Prior knowledge:
The chain is 53% helix and 6% strand. It has 23 helices and 8 strands.
Amino acid sequence: QDHWLIFSFSLFTSSHNQPLSLSILGMKMEQASLLGAEEEKAEQEKKWGNIDDVLYAPLGPVSGDESWWLVPFFWLTLPITLIAGVIGGLCQSVFVGYAIGFRCLPCDGLLPSVLKGRPWYLAAALWRFIVAALVALATNSGRLGLYLWEKSAFGNHEHWYHGEGCWCWSYTDCVAVLKSNQARKPAFGCVKACMPDLFASNILIFLPNSDASECEWAAIRRALHEHLLDHTTLTYSQRLAELKSKLESSWPSPKLTDLNDKTFLRMLVCQCVYYMLFGIWVSDDDGKTLSGWRSNASIFIIPRTFQRVIFNYGIKKVQTLRRNTVDIIRKHQLEPFFTKMNESLPAKYQRSATVKLCDEILFAAGFAGIGGTCAGIETMTAFLQVKIPDEASKNHIKFGEYDTPEKMLAAYIKDPDAYIRESFRLDPPVTSCTTSLTEEKVVTLDGRQITLPEGMLYNYTQSIANRDPELFPDSDYFKPERANLKKALTWNGAWGADDEHEFPRLCPGRYLSVDIVKAVFAHATGCNRELVRREERGACC
């Protein structure tokens, strides 16, 4: 209607004041254009959504022993819980009783509570078990040390119990799980995950996989590969080639010891990861923000009960991190990238708000990509200096003949791939993964035959499987010349082995992570080598 009036008015005034009519016409058209742009922007914002709606969505299932009203009782009984926990964390037989119930009191344990749905009146069983596990972790030097101590507590049989499920550890059992269709659930460390306030919902590590190509896991993994992680594309190769100059500019006078500064190391890794994924080299400040995905790693293993005991301090930190991560993407105007990815999914898996998919992808990139790559580089930085990494199990890592930094560097220069694989075998960034039982299973725990129901959490422990004495003789020793390194399960499967194709959940970001590791150490050590050894590679599954 406005355009018609403008046209009529311009005809009327054309013979009297043509410049005026043209000016008014131009103003009206500009206003219409601005109005259209504002409407389009509003529509895009509506399609994008609000990150707070994702972070503060209704909680997933909350057990009775996680109720807020129990928090005061926890603090009131804390002295008793601490005493009981210390005893359990130092005495293996007591720990076993806390886990599955004492023989004289079979109902008094965490397993009986889990089988009953973790009711509020058995909350004390969870409290003392978690304290006992923390004491055992502190006294056994790292996660691997804890796992081996717990395995020993249960008689070094095929299984032990921790958290809300059973754990297997043998190479054979772990491979069997890894080659199967896993009934994954929102769980981490064999404990139900805090979702969606701590963990993003529907992230890849929580989705079950099946043979069907239409399942959500397959759709999301395929989208990740096509849009972000396909190492065979020209874009990936160009970014990898440019990474050298980016590192030179950001880190002009490199020394290996610079990486002892974890703040700097993590910032640098974040910049590398985001450049390879999105083609942006984030600022130092944004890199330090993103490094929270590594520095906050311990928060993710805390169950909701203890998150509430500390009044959700950890959850709030991660929520802020997730919001800030999305803000970095928006600052670089990458919303259309995620809109395109969302639209590429089958209609039934598309997120109603694009920001939800963005949060899920960025969570995976931060939690696994940044966290895992940082952990790996921290391990190798220590190894190249013949030091035990801070979080590693020091009693289970021996350098043997590689007892000087010179010998370590020579081993790395000789074969970076083997050096990386052996470093990560000894001190893997991911030590275990959680799935669930697809059928009822009878296991032996502390000499007792116990029937575990279908759907119960089940953990496979790659960090112990990677020390199988038959595949990896002298498994505590650093030997990058090992013959079977490609059989290590570090990347959620035997990457590079003859049966690699049989592991459906191989880490989709394994090439990206290793390429960044090589780029960083090529720069840090001054090695005149190609950033990546160009082997014949199969497609990333």
